[in-house]
Amino acid sequence: MAEPPELDGSERRAGQQPETKGNASFSYAKGAAGDALIVAVRCRGAGTIKVVVKTVNVTFPLECLAGETRTTYNQIGISGAEKPGTVSVTAPSEVHWSMTIGRGEPPAEDQQ
After folding, report:
1. Do the beta carbons of residue 39 and residue 98 sit within 8 Å?
2. pTM to 2 decimals?
């Protein structure tokens, strides 16, 4: 099963998509100014899914494997990440996926 991923204790849920097969889109809620957007995706089944977060102009693929559940967490800390938006997923029909959208602290700046 591809149950939606959990967020860590300091993050707040803004949206969630239960286990889904194939293509789908769903909305997520507005965050506070300065919040980062967390996109947590879980998938199972052979194929690549494409995740598009239009509000922040971010797209990324996730390679999913038959017989294995994979989870990836992406933290987006750019201007506009606090806005409400929509996530669209393009996925082969044999891939099961779920997603949790969260809000949290922006990523720490690299100290150099």
Report:
1. no
2. 0.90
